[in-house]
Design brief:
CATH class of the largest domain in chain A: Alpha Beta
Radius of gyration of chain A: 26 Å
Helix content of chain B: over 70%
Subcellular location (chain A): Cell envelope
CATH superfamily of one domain in chain B: MetI-like
Number of strands of chain A: 12
Largest interface: A-B, 36 and 33 residues
GO cellular component, one term (chain A): cell envelope
Protein name (chain A): Carbohydrate ABC transporter substrate-binding protein
CATH topology of the largest domain in chain A: D-Maltodextrin-Binding Protein, domain 2
CATH class of one domain in chain B: Mainly Alpha
Shape of chain B: flat
Number of domains of chain A: 2
CATH superfamily of the largest domain in chain A: Periplasmic binding protein-like II
Family (chain A): Belongs to the bacterial solute-binding protein 1 family.
Oligomer: heterodimer
Strand order of the largest sheet of chain A: 2-1-3-12-6
Strand content of chain A: 5-15%
Largest sheet of chain A: 5 strands, mixed
Shape of chain A: globular
Strand content of chain B: under 5%
Structural class of chain A: alpha/beta
Helix content of chain A: 40-55%
CATH topology of one domain in chain B: MetI-like fold
InterPro entries (chain A): Bact_solute-bd_prot1, SBP
Radius of gyration of chain B: 23 Å
Chain lengths: 437, 289
C-alpha cells in the first residue's frame, strides 16, 4: 500500500503540499466577496449589445468616467444581443444570479418585480434627487404596484432622418403630410432612388416611424382598452394606418431588398446617400455625424395624416426600456452604495452630458450643451423634439405590451411593407397575439 | 484471463455511458416535454396548461409554414443531394486529373461554419446587391427575389443546404466505394457486365448500407437547419421561410414563449425520430426483399 512505502510517501509529499497550498489560496479567494476585491467594490452591468464599447459608446463612456471618478468601484460591463441577453436574464432570474444592474424590457421587468427579483428604486432615486429630474410620464411608466422598478436607460427619440440633398437633387421639397410623402416616394421610385431605408432581416423591430403612426391614429386613447381587452387592434383606425403603409409600399417607397437587409445595412444605405429617409432614432446621430451626408441631414418627426385620429403634431420622445437593479443588491451594503453612486453619476449633469456627447439626448431635465457644428445632427433631432406645440406620447406603443405582442406588431408592419399581409390581416395578427395573453 | 461477460461487470462498464446518455439526452427530452405542457414565459412562473400548446400549434399558420418548408427542403435534399453526391463519389473514383484538389474543393463547404455559408450566399442571392441578379441583369432578366419572397426563399435555402452538404456526403460515399472488394468488381467485368450493369447490379446493392447512413444523416441535418435560415432570410419575410428549428428559436427566445417553444422542440424530435425510423424500416425491407 502507498502509505506503507517510504518512496510513495516522499513522492506524494511535494504534490500534496502544492495541492494544499493551492487549495488554501483558492479557499481564501472564495471567502473574499467580489464586493471587496483589492479594496474595490465590483458591480456588474449587463447590456443588450454584444459589444457595448462600440455599439453603445454612451454607456461605455459613462462607465469609464464613473470609474475614474470612483476608483473604489469597478463596473464589470457585459453584453449580448437582445434575444441572448434576455435568455441569460431568464436563466439568471430562476437561479437568483441576476447581474447587479441590467437593461431589460419593461414587461419583463414587471414580471421580475412581481417575483421579487428587482429592487424598488423609489427610496434610492428619491434620496438621490433623481425622481424629481425625470419626466413624470417616465416615472409613471416605470412604476408598478407603487414601486419604481427602473430608471430610463436612454431616450427614445425616433423619427425619419432626411437627406435633403437627395430630395433637392430630384427636384423635391421636404414633405409635411402623408400625401406629400407619397408623392415624394412616387417621384423617387421613378428615378430608382429608395425613399425610406428599412431593414427587416434580424431586425424586425426597426419600424420606429410606423409606431409613431399608431399614435397618429389614436393609439394613446386606445392603449388602456387594448391592454384590458375592451378595445381591438383590428379597429378601423389602425387598419387605415396599415392601408397607408401599403400605399407607400405600392408607391415604391421601400428598398427591393427590405426583407433581406439588416437594420445596419439600411443605415449604411442611407449613409451612402442612396436613400432619402432613414427610419431610425437619435442613436444613429453619431454614425450620421461621422458620415459624408452629415451636412445634408435633418430630423423629421414624420408625416401628418388628414384622416388621422387626434393629435398629429407628435414626436416620439420617450424613455426607452429601463435599467433595473437586482433585489440581492440590497442585501450587500457595499454593493448597494456602489450602485447608488453609479445611478447618481448616470443621472448627474456630467453623466447626461456624456450621453449627449455620444449622440444621445438627455433623459433628465438637463439642458445639454451642443456643439452646433460637431453635433449638428443630434441638434436637429433635439430641435425637432422641442419645436413649438409638439407633444410626445407617454410611451412607444410596443413597449406597453409583452414581448410576443410587440413582435406581432413588428411583424404586422413589416408584413404590409413586404406585401405578405393585407392591412386587415396585419391588424388581425396583432389582435390574435393580444387574444393569446 | 479475466472474463467480463458477467452481468454486473457489463452493467459497470455500461454505467458511465448510461449516465452521460441520461444526462445529455433523456433528461433534456423529458425536461422539454415537461415544459411543453406549461405556459412558461421566462421571467414569471410556469403553470400547467395540459395540451393547450400542442392544440395552439395546429392553429399557428407560421408553424404550419415552417413544417411545409422543412419537408420541402427534406424532399429536395433527398432527391438531389444523395444522387449528386453519389455521382460525384463515382467520378472521384475514376482517374481524373487533380482528383485530390477537386475532392478538397467539394469538401470545402462542409468545413465552413453554416453561419458563414449563409453569409456568403446572402451576397450571392440578395435581390438588390446579390451577385446572381447582377449576372442575370445583362441577359435581360429582371431582379429575382431569391431570398426576399415567400415563394422562392425555401427553395434557395434548400439549394444552399445541398451545396454545403454535398462534399460531406460525397466523402462518405467515396470511402464506401473504396472499401468495395476489388475481386467482385473484377469478376463482374470478366462476366461481361457493362459499366451501367456493374453500377446497377453490383455497386449500388453493395453500397446500400452507406446510402442508408448518408440518407439518415441528411434527414437529421435537415431537421437541424437553423444558421442558414438565420443568415439568409432571418425566417422572413414575416416567417414565410422559417424551418422548424428557426421558428422554434423565434418562439422560444425572441417571443419568450418557452412553453410553446418546447412544444415545437418535442414535435421536431418526434417528426425527426419517426422519419428516421421509417427510412430505416424501408431500408431494411429493401435489404430483405
Amino acid at each position: 500500500m502507498p502509505g506503507q512505502n517510504p518512496s510513495w510517501s516522499r513522492r506524494l509529499r511535494r504534490p500534496v503540499g502544492v495541492g494544499l497550498a493551492v487549495t488554501a489560496i483558492l479557499s481564501l479567494a472564495a471567502c473574499s466577496s467580489d464586493a471587496d476585491e483589492g479594496g474595490k467594490t465590483t458591480i456588474t452591468l449587463s447590456m443588450q449589445n454584444a459589444d457595448v464599447k462600440t455599439a453603445d459608446p454612451a454607456t461605455w463612456a459613462i462607465v469609464e468616467a464613473f470609474e475614474d471618478a470612483n476608483p473604489d468601484v469597478d463596473v464589470e460591463v457585459s453584453g449580448q444581443p437582445v434575444a441572448e441577453h434576455l435568455q441569460s436574464l431568464s436563466i439568471a432570474a430562476q437561479s437568483d444570479t441576476l447581474p447587479d444592474v441590467f437593461w431589460v424590457y419593461k414587461a419583463n421587468a414587471e414580471e421580475m418585480l412581481e417575483g421579487d427579483r428587482l429592487m424598488d428604486l423609489s427610496p434610492v432615486l428619491d434620496e438621490l434627487g433623481i425622481l424629481d429630474r425625470l419626466p413624470d410620464s417616465t416615472v409613471a411608466n416605470y412604476t408598478a404596484d407603487g414601486k419604481v422598478f427602473g430608471a430610463p436607460y436612454q431616450g427614445l427619440l425616433t423619427g425619419l432622418w432626411v437627406n435633403s440633398k437627395v430630395l433637392a437633387d430630384n427636384g423635391l421639397s421636404m414633405p409635411k403630410t402623408f400625401d406629400d410623402l407619397l408623392a415624394v416616394a412616387r417621384a423617387l421610385d421613378a428615378k430608382g432612388v429608395v425613399t425610406i431605408s428599412n431593414g427587416a432581416s434580424q431586425s424586425a423591430f426597426s419600424v420606429w416611424q410606423f409606431l409613431v403612426w399608431l399614435d397618429r391614429f389614436g393609439f394613446e386613447d386606445k392603449a388602456d382598452g387594448l391592454l384590458d381587452g375592451s378595445e381591438k387592434w383590428d379597429n378601423p383606425d389602425f387598419i387605415r394606418m396599415y392601408e397607408h403603409i401599403a400605399e407607400l409600399r405600392d408607391a415604391g417607397a421601400f428598398s427591393s431588398n427590405v426583407s433581406t437587409q439588416t437594420y445596419q445595412q439600411a443605415v449604411d444605405q442611407f449613409l451612402q446617400g442612396k436613400a432619402a429617409f432613414l427610419d431610425s432614432g437619435v442613436w444613429a446621430a453619431s454614425a450620421i455625424q461621422e458620415s459624408k451626408v452629415a451636412p445634408d441631414v435633418d430630423f423629421w418627426r414624420g408625416p401628418e395624416f388628414s384622416d388621422g385620429v387626434g393629435e398629429q403634431n407628435i414626436v416620439m420622445n420617450v424613455a426607452s426600456a429601463p435599467l433595473v437593479v437586482a433585489e440581492k443588491v440590497a442585501e450587500d451594503d457595499a454593493k448597494l452604495d456602489a450602485v447608488k453612486d453609479f445611478l447618481e453619476f448616470y443621472y448627474s449633469d456630467e453623466g447626461q452630458q456624456i450621453l449627449v456627447d455620444n449622440g444621445q439626448p438627455p433623459v433628465t431635465d438637463y439642458e445639454p450643451k451642443l456643439d452646433p457644428v460637431k453635433q449638428s445632427v443630434l441638434a436637429s433631432a433635439i430641435d425637432e423634439a422641442q419645436a413649438d406645440d409638439v407633444t410626445s406620447p407617454e410611451s412607444q406603443p410596443d413597449l406597453l405590451f409583452p414581448v410576443d405582442v410587440s413582435n406581432a406588431i413588428y411583424d404586422s408592419i413589416y408584413g404590409v411593407i413586404q406585401d405578405q399581409l393585407s392591412p386587415s390581416e396585419a391588424a388581425a395578427l396583432v389582435q390574435k397575439a393580444l387574444d393569446n395573453q | 484471463m479475466v472474463w467480463v461477460s458477467s452481468p454486473w461487470k457489463i452493467a459497470l462498464m455500461v454505467f458511465p455511458a448510461f449516465i452521460l446518455f441520461t444526462a445529455f439526452f433523456i433528461y433534456p427530452v423529458v425536461y422539454a416535454g415537461g415544459y411543453s405542457l406549461t405556459d412558461a414565459a421566462g421571467f414569471s412562473g410556469a403553470e400547467f396548461v395540459g395540451l393547450d400548446n400542442y392544440l395552439a400549434l395546429a392553429e399557428d399558420s407560421f408553424f404550419r409554414r415552417s413544417v411545409t418548408n422543412t419537408l420541402l427542403i427534406l424532399v429536395l435534399s433527398v432527391t438531389f443531394l444523395v444522387p449528386a453526391s453519389f455521382g460525384l463519389a463515382l467520378l472521384m473514383q475514376q482517374r481524373v486529373r487533380a482528383a485530390g484538389a477537386l475532392r478538397a474543393l467539394l469538401f470545402g463547404p462542409a468545413i465552413v461554419a453554416p453561419i458563414l455559408v449563409g453569409l456568403v450566399w446572402v451576397f450571392i442571392l440578395d435581390p438588390r446587391v446579390g451577385l446572381l441578379n447582377h449576372l442575370l441583369e445583362p441577359l435581360g432578366v429582371p431582379p429575382v427575389q431569391w431570398i426576399g419572397s415567400d415563394s422562392l426563399a425555401p427553395y434557395s435555402i434548400a439549394v444552399v443546404f445541398i451545396w454545403a452538404s454535398v462534399g460531406f456526403a460525397m466523402t462518405i460515399f467515396y470511402a464506401g466505394l473504396r472499401l468495395l472488394p476489388a475481386e467482385v468488381m473484377e469478376a463482374s467485368s470478366l462476366d461481361g457486365a457493362s459499366g451501367w450493369q456493374q453500377l446497377r447490379y453490383v455497386t449500388i446493392p453493395m453500397m446500400r448500407e452507406t446510402i442508408g447512413i448518408v440518407s439518415l444523416l441528411l434527414i437529421t441535418n435537415v431537421f437541424k437547419i437553423f444558421e442558414l435560415v438565420y443568415m439568409l432570410t432571418g425566417g422572413g419575410p414575416v416567417h414565410s421561410s422559417e424551418t422548424l428549428v428557426s421558428y422554434m428559436y423565434f418562439v422560444t427566445f425572441t417571443d419568450q414563449r418557452y412553453g410553446s417553444g418546447m412544444t415545437i422542440a418535442m414535435v421536431v424530435f418526434v417528426i425527426g425520430a419517426l422519419t428516421s425510423l421509417a427510412y430505416l424500416a424501408l431500408s431494411r425491407r429493401g435489404r430483405l426483399a
